[in-house]
Design brief:
seven-stranded mixed β-sheet, alpha/beta, elongated, 212 residues, 9 strands, homodimer
Chain lengths: 212, 212
């Protein structure tokens, strides 16, 4: 992945908070607000003002005394840092219920993710298009990957196939796996793995509801 | 929410690992394996065998010396504890791209979540059905919530509407909010909030890719 400048190192908990700040300033800009203090952001979120100031200082964004942050500048600084304004190409591995749903979610493109192809083994879906995105046989991944420009693979195959599909992706030149399955992928350390186990989140939510 | 027995307290990091073990034992059962050791599970996942044994002991599941865990028993114990075999009714707040995708994802019902209605303000979708699930005007939430039996609201509305919609849900008697937006919801402490900010995960993944 090319970038115009090297990003500063930011700890993961801070990175996870940055989209909250972005959501907050997008809302303020829509309301016509020009400047915002970390205290005002703090009042809208559940985060200390000093933590907000520290998180933003990683991005070299600093507020002005008594004025605060310029909303438009803060919004574009956050979008730039978070990579939501860049285009990242991805392939969808597994075009079942969840895979199909993610391909149809145009919201992802607003956050810089462009799904350019789906791959599956099911002859009923191979050769079709979902939301204008073609679905190919999974055996074609390696020959098509580079031409598609995809460095990210979204994994939404059945649990028993995840290990094999992850290996195929790495072999085809994929650099990052966005894993939506509950299976814990083991691969080489140079591959980025992001687990978004929505079913694990469900389990945590059910458990908390029972504890109350 | 009623349950036949009080669940033991399990720390959240352990709860998050349990679905990995479940995915692993489901795969083993499909392969006809009857017994598995924590060492064998450890070899498939990136988790220490001693951690696995500790996590499972919270559920009062103990392996037998030299034999290990009975696969079928482990699978049903995990499913029971995780609540994936119970039926939890939910409403979808916001039937845009992501909301529509989640309503169409039949995979959620396999994990105990049954979306029984959608709510939106858009006259083009109100009155329609998505995957057989009716969509109502958001103003009808309070009068319909109890009859629907829904205690969970999935939030997928635009960022600037999240705070207002969360308040409406709580006012209508919702007990848990599953928040898919990047907005950080503040509400009363007796409401369970589960954030699944898939866009924040994207940001973390982009950032890690750049750092390599």
């Amino acid at each position: 992945m090319e970038s115009l400048h090297q990003h500063p190192f930011v700890p993961e908990p801070a990175i996870r908070r940055l989209p909250w700040y972005l959501a907050c300033v997008q809302r303020l800009r829509a309301q016509g607000v020009e400047y915002v203090s970390s205290t005002a952001i703090s009042n809208q979120l559940n985060v200390d003002a000093s933590q907000i100031a520290k998180d933003l200082s990683y991005l070299n964004i600093k507020g002005k005394t008594r004025i605060g942050y310029e909303v438009a500048e803060l919004e574009s600084g956050l979008n730039d840092f978070l990579g939501f304004h860049q285009c990242h190409y991805a392939v969808m591995m597994g075009v079942g219920s969840l895979g199909r749903a993610l391909m149809a979610d145009s919201g992802l493109s607003r956050y810089g993710l462009d799904i350019v192809a789906g791959f599956d083994v099911n002859p009923d879906v191979v050769g079709t298009e979902i939301g204008g995105i073609p679905v190919y046989d999974i055996s074609e991944l390696k020959e098509r990957r580079a031409a598609l420009g995809a460095e990210i693979a979204i994994i939404a195959v059945p649990v028993e196939k995840v290990a094999e599909v992850a290996d195929m992706c790495v072999d085809a030149g994929i650099k990052a796996l966005w894993n939506f399955t509950p299976f814990h992928i083991k691969t080489s350390p140079e591959i980025t793995i992001q687990n978004t186990s929505i079913y694990a989140h469900l389990a945590v939510m059910y458990n908390r509801m029972e504890q109350r």
